[in-house]
């Protein structure tokens, strides 16, 4: 029995010994609640759920977690280990996530020397790359840092003694199912598995999502000799480090297993992992008034729509009218009191006009025969021919919409005091006889020539039937002027466009739709036999045809590859520059095409603008080579594909001579119909239910509103507390009293800040006294109290300061055009006696981390390596006061637009447009006076305007540049703020007030009366010389050494004092020569008169004076000193320096 017990004891002791030995070479943390073997420091903590949290979402943190016991590697065999852990990096909503997590192998757990942010809590600037610093790290890095040669902001790297990775790759994993690498987002907040295996001299790193098994191929594989890296390999610590900067995130470890033998590495049980907490974006409380207003508007709209709906239901349809007239349907009964009857303006109705024929409603318009009623009292007509005709000569045609004289037999359906003949025009059937139409082309009843409707894969052609005969003896020339409109279908991409065509044939049956515009096809593309000249208005960007954008005008010769092209715009003779024009706006656009002397000019303009003095396109083309027979047809072609739109021609004039081109009256053009998005008919029951809910909600909100009105305002509360206002009387039965739970109120919470009135779409700061909580400040930036002045830099060298609105603005992808406006007041105050610099910049950035930036000419935004980098997501408006040849600055007082680089894409000398004088006035940035800046971005156009504080916003901006911010900021999450820097050139740089909004219309105005005052440093006041004070106060005795007693001459003392003031004049040219000094002393020359106001007198730097009558110079000759009361003593003293 005893022997059996002894055997059990021996086996147990061996088992315990094995466990103890295993703890030194391998371990697993399925939960981190057991912290016995865990070393934590800084921000690292274990949450109640068992999660190991290395950092929370706070700035500039770092946390470390290590297995306390060192890993005992064999001193004789090859060093090897394997680890497998699960981590999660959870960004804080609305903030950039960072900086990342690293797995660390180190001979020490002491990282007190380390820095946060980009150093990930392991390295610092001094240990970076040091050979005496032994660390192996596998980093999961979420910040792109060019100083460390990072490839992007989502990568995995192997670091040896330095944060500059020896091997690096974008975060991804090999999918064994797909046979390719799949990207993985480290900052997704989802758990990620990481494996690190070292054997022989090869280190492998693999990553994968939680639900994927370990990939067969590692992400990184790099040869490393860890025996050389860790000479004392018998004692190494394994663990983790993480850090944040201004980029923040919660960084967790969920599970961790480690072993020096890959085969004994414990496997992960996913079902036992703790949940990862995901912070939610805070929801702002919506004001009652904001809720109340849309509810009231909704009820009002519903009431109007319901009234229109029911009113419309009482009106008969056209079919019912016909049935009533033919007595096939009895008229409904009504009385003078029937709803809607007899309450509208009288309408004169002719019974004959009610006769409706299905044939008369064809697409080509109503018949104009005398036997049928005239439903369209308009016709195509020239300005000098009888009504109802068109000009049709050998060399010209002119088609203009004009009203036709109404037939006396036809009475109009009209309201009193209205004349439809004065506003609209249409095409008669007689006019249509001169036009050749095919495809989807048709003339609408109102006289519009419609080329395509909003159907896909259509094409249409309209040509003047008679060919244009061009003289063979004269040079070929022609001019045309037409008005067109391209109207997109709501909710659908518009396209493809239309073209004016000159061709020897009207047969385009070979042509294709879509990008070929109904003129060309793939086989005839570029063929010389095509014999086609086209001026295209193209709304689709097609790289195959070398299109420049999706809104351009081009000249095509035998091919859709334009020989000349330009973005759609027109030259404004008023502004003296080109103004862009949107072809797909749906508004009428005028186009002129002129050909003369082998030069083809194309001009365009909106309907209300006259023909510009400069064409949009001017191309040299020899049409005689294209059309040898000179018998041509002119007309239009249009096409749609999956991109669709309505394409109209409103009027058209053509002539073989520009001088005879007839003009038409733009005011008489027909209206362009604009389709509306389809509205589904709502069920009456649904409308009633919605109205009931709206009324109930309105009653509830009204009650809450009036209940809230019963509460005192904050001002009243303060007056109650100070006993300046008596409390109102109430009883237990007073409405709203004693019906709610008690609330603990801290008196300090009653202080309300009004300096920052933030709204959903923007914010405003009239001074920054209460703004610190909403701003991110770093570097030298601070708020000066009590005025609330935001100071970016003081007058010290090599400084930079940043001030950003803490919360980023997210522009959703459904917002097609990113836009914003800002207005701020700044001041650049130079230090007296020093050159000011370097300047201020308004900044739009995807991050507020500028730790890598340099001061001086980089304005605290970039450095030499990031300047111009494609990955620098940055837009800056610089107010630059230093001329830098490196950045191609134009002068030392300029404003510039910078994109990803300090080399401005647009710059101008600082000035503002004076609305009163009609010209630009220069403005000095370094004047120290407040300067207003406006930055407006809308529709891909950035405008920058400046002005003094006393001037309203000028009509014309200083800078205007076309920029696509979506290309610069693809994630559309933007921070807005300021940056400033000094170098050896210094100045005080202030922001006084700032307003910002997503929309220019909602931008709040700054209240200048609330802006803080600007402190102006004063030059050091030079002290008045004591000698001058003595003379002014008539107290000569104060300047005499008391040891002389009374043995001195007052006249000679006054002379010496005056002479001292003259000789120390701050203006060198006013000082006397030595010869003059001797003459003054010998009284051979009278002393000049001076006063305290004399230039340079009494303001020199103080000089320590020994007693005039008690000092001797070692340079004086060794003679007996002269008498202390004669002039020779004074001469001796000044000559040898005793009386300086």
Automatic annotation (TrEMBL):
Q: What is its main location?
A: membrane
Q: Which GO terms describe its molecular function?
A: ATP binding; carbohydrate binding; protein serine/threonine kinase activity
- Signal sequence: where? 1-21
Q: Which GO terms describe its cellular component?
A: plasma membrane
- InterPro entries assigned to the protein according to its UniProt record, in alphabetical order: ConA-like_dom_sf (IPR013320), Lectin_legB_Mn/Ca_BS (IPR019825), Legume_lectin_dom (IPR001220), Leguminous_Lectin (IPR050258)
A Pfam family this chain is assigned to = Lectin_legB
Keywords per UniProt: ATP-binding, Cell membrane, Lectin, Membrane, Nucleotide-binding, Receptor, Signal, Transmembrane, Transmembrane helix
What are the residue boundaries of the Legume lectin domain, all occurrences included? 25-274, 424-668, 762-1010
**Its topology with respect to the membrane?**
Single-pass type I membrane protein
The UniProt transmembrane annotation reads 289-310, 632-650, 685-707, 974-996
Record-given protein name: (thale cress) hypothetical protein
Species the sequence originates in: Arabidopsis thaliana (Mouse-ear cress)
């Amino acid at each position: 029995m005893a022997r059996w017990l002894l055997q059990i004891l021996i086996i147990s002791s061996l088992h315990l010994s094995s466990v103890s030995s295993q703890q030194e070479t391998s371990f697993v943390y399925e939960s981190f609640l057991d912290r016995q073997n865990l070393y934590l420091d800084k921000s690292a903590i274990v949450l109640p759920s068992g999660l190991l949290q290395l950092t929370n979402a706070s700035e500039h943190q770092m946390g470390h977690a290590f297995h306390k016991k060192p890993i005992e590697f064999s001193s004789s065999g090859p060093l090897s280990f394997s680890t497998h852990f699960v981590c999660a990096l959870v960004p804080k909503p609305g903030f950039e996530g960072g900086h990342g997590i690293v797995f660390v192998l180190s001979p020490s757990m002491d990282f007190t020397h380390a820095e946060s942010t980009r150093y990930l809590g392991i390295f610092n600037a001094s240990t970076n790359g040091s050979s005496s610093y032994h660390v192996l790290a596998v980093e999961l890095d979420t910040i792109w840092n060019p100083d460390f040669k990072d490839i992007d902001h989502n990568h995995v790297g192997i670091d040896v003694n330095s944060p500059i990775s020896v091997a690096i790759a974008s975060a991804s994993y090999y999918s064994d199912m797909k046979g390719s690498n799949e990207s993985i987002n480290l900052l997704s907040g989802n758990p990620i598995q990481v494996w690190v295996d070292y054997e022989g001299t090869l280190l492998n790193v693999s990553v994968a999502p939680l639900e994927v098994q370990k990939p067969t191929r590692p992400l990184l594989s790099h040869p490393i000799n860890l025996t050389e890296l860790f000479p004392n390999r018998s004692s190494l610590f394994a663990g983790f480090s993480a850090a944040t900067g201004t980029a923040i995130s919660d960084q967790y470890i969920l599970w961790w297993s480690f072993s020096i033998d890959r085969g004994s590495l414990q496997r992960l049980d996913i079902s036992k992992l703790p949940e990862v907490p995901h912070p939610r974006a805070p929801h702002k409380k919506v004001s009652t008034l904001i809720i109340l207003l849309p509810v009231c508007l909704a009820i009002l709209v519903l009431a109007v729509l319901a009234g229109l709906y029911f009113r419309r239901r009482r009106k008969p349809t056209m079919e019912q009218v016909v049935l009533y007239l033919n007595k096939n349907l009895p008229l409904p009964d009504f009385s003078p009191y029937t709803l809607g009857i007899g309450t509208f303006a009288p309408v004169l109705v002719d019974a004959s006009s009610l006769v409706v024929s299905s044939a008369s409603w064809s697409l080509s318009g109503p018949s104009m025969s005398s036997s049928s009623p005239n439903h369209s009292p308009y016709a195509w007509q020239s300005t000098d021919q009888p009504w109802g005709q068109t000009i049709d000569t050998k060399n010209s045609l002119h088609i203009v919409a004009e009203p036709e004289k109404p037939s006396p037999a036809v009475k109009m359906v009209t309201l009193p005091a209205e004349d439809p003949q004065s506003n609209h025009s249409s095409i008669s059937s007689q006019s249509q006889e001169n036009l050749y139409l095919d495809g989807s082309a048709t003339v609408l009843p109102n006289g519009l020539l419609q080329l395509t409707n909003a159907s896909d894969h259509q094409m249409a052609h309209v040509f003047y039937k008679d060919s244009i005969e061009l003289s063979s003896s004269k040079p070929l020339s022609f001019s045309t002027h037409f008005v067109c409109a391209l109207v997109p279908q709501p909710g659908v991409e518009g396209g493809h466009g239309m073209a004016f065509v000159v061709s020897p044939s009207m047969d385009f049956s070979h042509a294709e739709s879509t990008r070929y515009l109904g003129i060309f096809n793939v086989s005839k593309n570029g063929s010389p036999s095509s014999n086609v000249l086209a001026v295209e208005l193209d709304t689709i960007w097609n790289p195959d045809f070398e299109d420049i954008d999706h809104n351009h005008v081009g000249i095509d010769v035998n091919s859709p590859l334009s020989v000349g092209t330009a973005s759609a715009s027109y030259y404004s003779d008023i502004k003296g520059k080109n103004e862009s024009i949107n072809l797909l706006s749906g508004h009428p656009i005028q186009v002129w095409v002129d050909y003369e002397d082998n030069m083809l000019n194309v001009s365009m303009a909106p309907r209300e603008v006259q023909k510009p003095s400069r064409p949009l396109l001017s191309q040299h083309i020899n049409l005689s080579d294209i059309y040898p027979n000179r018998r041509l047809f002119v007309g239009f072609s249009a096409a749609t594909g999956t991109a669709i739109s309505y394409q109209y021609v409103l009027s058209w004039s053509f002539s073989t001579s520009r001088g005879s081109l007839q003009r038409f009256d733009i005011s008489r053009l027909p209206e362009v119909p604009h389709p509306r998005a389809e509205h589904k008919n709502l069920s009456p029951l649904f409308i009633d239910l919605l109205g009931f809910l709206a009324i109930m909600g309105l009653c509830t909100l009204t009650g809450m509103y009036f209940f809230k009105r019963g509460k005192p305002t904050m001002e009243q509360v303060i007056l109650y507390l100070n006993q300046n206002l008596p409390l109102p009387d109430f009883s237990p039965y007073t409405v709203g009293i004693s019906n709610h739970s008690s609330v603990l109120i801290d008196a300090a919470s009653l202080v309300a800040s009004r300096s920052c009135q933030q709204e959903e779409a923007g914010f405003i700061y009239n001074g920054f006294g209460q703004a610190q909580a909403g701003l991110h400040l770093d570097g030298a930036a601070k708020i000066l109290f009590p005025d609330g002045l935001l100071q970016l830099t003081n007058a010290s060298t090599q400084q930079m300061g940043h001030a950003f609105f803490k919360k980023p603005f997210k522009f959703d992808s459904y917002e097609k055009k990113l836009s914003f406006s800002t207005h701020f007041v700044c001041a650049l105050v130079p230090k007296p006696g020093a050159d000011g610099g370097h300047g201020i910049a308004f900044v739009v950035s995807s991050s507020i981390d500028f730790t890598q930036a340099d001061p001086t000419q980089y304005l605290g935004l970039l450095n030499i390596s990031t300047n111009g980098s494609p990955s620098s997501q940055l837009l800056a408006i610089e107010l630059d006061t230093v001329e830098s040849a490196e950045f191609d600055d134009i002068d030392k007082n300029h404003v510039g637009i910078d994109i990803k680089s300090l080399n401005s894409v647009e710059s101008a000398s600082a000035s503002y447009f004076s609305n009163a004088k009609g010209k630009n006035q220069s403005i000095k940035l370094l004047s120290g006076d407040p300067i207003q800046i406006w930055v407006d971005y809308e529709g891909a156009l950035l405008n920058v305007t400046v002005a003094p504080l006393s001037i309203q916003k000028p009509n014309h901006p200083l800078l205007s540049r076309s920029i696509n911010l979506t290309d610069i900021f693809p994630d559309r999450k933007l921070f807005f703020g300021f940056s400033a820097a000094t170098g050896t050139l210094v100045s005080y740089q202030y922001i006084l007030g700032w307003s910002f909004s997503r929309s220019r219309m909602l931008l709040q105005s700054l209240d200048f009366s609330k802006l803080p005052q600007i402190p102006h440093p004063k030059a050091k006041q030079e002290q008045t010389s004591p000698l001058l004070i003595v003379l002014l106060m008539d107290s000569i005795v104060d300047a005499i050494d008391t040891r002389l007693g009374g043995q001195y001459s007052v006249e000679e003392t006054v002379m010496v004092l005056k002479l001292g003031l003259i000789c120390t004049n701050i203006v060198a040219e006013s000082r006397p020569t030595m010869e003059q000094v001797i003459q003054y002393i010998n009284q051979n020359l009278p002393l000049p008169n001076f006063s305290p106001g004399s230039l340079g007198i009494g303001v020199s730097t103080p000089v320590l004076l020994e007693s005039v009558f008690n000092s001797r110079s070692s340079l004086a000759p060794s003679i007996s000193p002269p008498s202390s009361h004669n002039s020779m003593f004074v001469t001796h003293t000044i000559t040898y320096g005793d009386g300086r």
